[in-house]
Write a structure and sequence with these properties.
The complex is a heterodimer. Chain A has helices at 3-30, 37-62, 70-93, 102-127, 136-155, 174-192, 195-205, 207-212, 217-243, 253-266, 271-290, 297-311, 328-336. Chain A is mainly α. Chain A has one domain (3-252). Chain B is of the alpha/beta class. The chains are: A mainly alpha, B alpha/beta.
Chain lengths: 340, 261
């Protein structure tokens, strides 16, 4: 059925993946040259920011819970994975893992998932207040929770205290970040096109009706927090192993604010919005650095935000999804009934 | 056999008694009307039955199972579904997604299967899609399947709410003023729909309605409430001439100024 449409869909998908791989390869090549490392870093930051934004979209976009603690989840992920690759090996063997052996690469991959898992656990803990609170009140509680995580990290001498942890081995280059990026986007896409996401949107649109239609709103809200926190933790682990140095103030409220801006400017309800928002608005402030306008950079950037929000209230992408991110079987269901 | 009953259901809002000693028994396949002036406690009764409020005292049974105080989604899964007085659709979702999300019991794919979109996931999604489309078709809404729920005309939104309630496969359906805001043609159509779904889905229906044309035409029994109390119950003909009911709706003569001053 729909052989022609399927062909077009496959062509687009292959084209997008091809462009992505080509970009990865180019960036991987440029990373060897010292002069280009700045650009490669921005490129990798974009991928990390997209994961972060997409993970926040589960909480703030789909489920409609206003959470302001996302940098906290990222911090948990970053510190947990760094603990495994750097802090513990230093205690036991006297030095951090070296990037030469394949065993340490396996441990690194494992540590990223542990980071995600630890952040997911915190998502579970922080998700519980969301059962009783909504709107502004939830925002304040999650904001406080994020700050508590940062304050605790500043306390702990074991994790470097306010000075942070230097000398993290540089595992996360183009290869790993590219792979984790693809995997995260794919799995988040799968969640968006599954029954979970329908439950999330139902809770956002009308919580009372959702519970009367047999949807366990408690489960939906907490699971949105867990999913969001998990992928934020993954992004945190990647960020730590890319920048090679983390301190608690990397994960303050300003970081949360950045992610929120990406989310709402791009469009909070679709992955397309997250990709466009995080991509564009990581690039713009850095790009403005190149054109020599000095202090005006931080005037133009917020003005851009105002203009976007004035003319596209639901974000740049609104509620549109990229065609290549829509599963073919889902498109088939729509086609079967004839387009609306 | 009694499908559903409440025993001395009472609810207070602070000091205000919204509902007192509400007793109702429904036999399977019955269609019972619930009427009364504004503020009589009809919607409060619905909210108690569907689990939105917890009753101050009294209990609720379905199939001899005590469901008092259970969370709303559990009550729904035990077979009680409802519509709302002010439409509460999931307005940002398409019509068919509104149905899909309610009929979640048809799905049993696990977390793993949905994270990785395994073949079993799509098999079930397609089955669900077919089921929901059939349901929309039965209620004549299939042309709107892919449209946003909020973009539907008012009457169709009401129908969609009924379809969504049916998707949860209830035994007892609570309809809260389904004809509110409808024109006479839409109302006639609605009466046909209610009678048809009752037969087709073998439902027991409890209906709140202010439109007497609707309530007198379709109810087999009627309960009349005023100020939280049940003041009359019985066949429509009996209710129509009950002095207490007339007094509740029109007021008692003595309380007003004499007709010829």
């Amino acid at each position: 059925m729909f052989a022609k449409e399927h062909g077009i869909h496959l062509q687009k998908l292959i084209l997008v993946i091809g462009i992505f791989i080509a970009l990865q390869a180019i960036m991987g090549g440029l990373a060897r040259e010292r002069a280009f490392q700045y650009y490669v870093r921005i490129y990798l930051l974009i991928e990390i920011n997209i994961i972060l934004t997409a993970s926040l979209s589960f909480i703030n976009g789909h489920t409609g819970q206003f959470s302001l603690g996302h940098a906290g989840f990222m911090a948990i992920g970053a510190y947990s994975s760094v603990m495994i690759t750097t802090v513990l090996p230093r205690l036991i063997m006297g030095s951090a893992l070296n990037t030469g052996s394949w065993e340490s690469h396996a441990i690194f991959i494992f540590s990223i998932f542990i980071g995600g898992g630890a952040a997911g656990l915190f998502g579970l803990i922080i998700g519980f207040p969301s059962l009783r609170l909504r709107g502004d009140y939830l925002a304040i509680v999650t904001l406080a929770a994020g700050e508590v995580i940062r304050a605790l990290l500043r306390f702990s001498d074991f994790l470097g205290g306010p000075r942070g942890i230097p000398g993290i081995p540089k595992f996360a280059g183009c290869v790993y970040i590219g792979l984790f990026f693809m995997l995260s986007i794919w799995i988040m896409r799968n969640i968006v096109f599954s029954h979970f996401s329908r439950g999330y949107i139902a809770v956002r649109d009308n919580e009372l009706a959702a519970s009367c239609m047999g949807i366990n709103t408690t489960f939906q809200k907490v699971s949105a927090f867990i999913v969001g926190a998990f992928f934020a933790g993954i992004a945190g682990g990647l960020f730590a192993h890319m920048s090679q140095y983390i301190n608690p103030d990397n994960f303050g409220f300003l970081k949360t604010l950045d992610i929120l801006i990406f989310l709402y400017v791009g469009g909070s309800r679709t992955l397309a919005g997250c990709i466009v928002g995080a991509g564009l608005f990581t690039l713009v402030p850095e790009g403005l650095r190149l054109v020599n306008i000095e202090n005006w950079r931080m005037v133009i950037y917020p003005l851009g935000l105002i203009v976007v929000m004035r003319f596209r209230m639901n974000g740049i992408m609104g509620s549109r999804e990229f065609g290549f991110l829509t599963p073919w079987k889902y498109k088939e269901m729509l086609l079967k009934r004839g387009k609306p | 056999m009694i499908l559903f009953k409440t025993a001395d259901l009472t609810h207070y809002f602070g000091g205000l008694r919204a509902l007192s000693h509400f007793n109702i028994e429904l036999n399977p396949g019955e269609l019972v009307g619930l009427i009364g002036p504004n503020g009589a406690g009809k919607t409060t009764a619905f909210n108690l039955i569907s689990g939105i409020y917890k009753p101050t005292s009294g209990s609720i049974f379905i199939d001899n199972l005590d469901i008092t105080g259970l969370p709303a989604h559990r009550i729904n899964r035990l077979g009680i579904s409802r519509t709302f007085q002010n439409i509460r659709l999931f307005h940002d979702m398409s019509c068919i997604d509104n149905i899909k999300v309610a009929s979640r019991m048809c799905l049993d794919y696990g977390l793993f299967s949905s994270l990785f979109h395994l073949p079993s996931f799509w098999r079930q999604e397609h089955r669900l899609d077919d089921y929901c489309y059939e349901l929309l078709k039965m209620l004549g809404l299939h042309h709107y399947a892919n449209l946003r729920a909020a973009s539907l005309p008012y009457g169709q939104q009401r129908r969609l709410e009924i379809a969504r309630a049916l998707a949860t496969q209830p035994k007892l359906l609570l309809l809260d003023e389904p004809a509110a805001g409808m024109n006479p043609a839409e109302t006639r159509e609605l009466i046909q729909t209610i009678l048809w779904i009752k037969k087709e889905f073998k439902l027991t229906i409890l209906i709140i309605e202010h439109n007497m044309h609707v309530i007198m035409n379709i109810s087999e029994r009627i309960l009349v409430m005023d100020f939280g109390e049940t003041i009359a119950a019985g066949q429509p003909d009996k209710i129509r001439s009950d002095p207490l009911v007339v007094a509740a709706y029109l007021g008692k003569m003595e309380e007003h100024a004499p007709r010829n001053p």
